[in-house]
Amino acid sequence: MANGFTETVEGLRYAEYISVPMRLFAGVIGLCMFLIPVPFVLHASVHTPWWHLLLAVACVLAATAMGLLFITLALCRVRTLQFDTAQRRVLRTSRWPLGARHTPIDFDRLGLPDVLERASEDGPYYVVRLTVQGERPMHLASFDRRDDAEHWRSRVAAQWQQNTL
User: Fold this and answer.
1) Region class of 161: left (phi > 0), else alpha (psi between -120 and 50), else beta
2) Tens digit of pLDDT for each residue in 131-150?
3) Cα 165 vs. chain centroid, distance in angstroms?
4) Residue 75 has what pLDDT?
5) Residues 110, 130 contacting (CB under 8 angstroms)
6) DSSP labels for 44-91?
7) Helix (H, G, I), strand (E, B) or coil at 27
């Protein structure tokens, strides 16, 4: 999943997205998972021992659950944040395949953003964290360099500090 900050005429904007090839890949895997149970169903009969039928049911349920998971990944939502300094709020948009949900968040509910360092096999990476009262913190973007993360953290913090003077 890719993400990033941009500055537009309307103000600071943050957007996440999943590329079309990645969505297609997850969708094809999800649909193929529904084919795994076919041999189990075709070979079941009235004369099959009950424990074999129980195993077949478990395999059908597991493959169906995995297929639903991958299809959900292919159709999952993406998040955008539009910082509106004139109205002193952030408009959070979560898009699903069947529509979008818009949630305005007042600047009063936001805490100052900070930068978190995370470890991975490739070395440390940095995440901008934005806290919202009454909700889980939002982790926005990941950066290879701390300087880039600090730049965007300060740009996010400046969005609501410029109108408080």
Assistant:
1) alpha
2) 999 888 988 888 888 898 89
3) 35
4) 85
5) yes
6) --TTS-HHHHHHHHHHHHHHHHHHHHHHHHHT--EEEEEEETTTTEEE
7) helix
DSSP 110: B
Q: What is the pLDDT of residue 27?
A: 94
| CB-based contact 8:51 (threshold 8 Å) | no
Q: Give the span between the Cα atoms of 39 and 41, in whole angstroms.
A: 5
Contact (CB, 8 A) for 95 and 77: yes
Q: Roughly what angle, to the nearest 10 degrees, separates helices 20-33 and 50-74?
A: 170
Question: What's the CA gap between 119 and 97, in Å, rounded?
Answer: 33
pLDDT tens-digit readout, 34-63 = 999 998 888 888 888 999 889 989 999 999
* The residue type at 36: I
- Joined tokens for residue 5: 């900050």
Alpha-carbon torsion angle 62, 2, 121, 153, nearest 10? -130
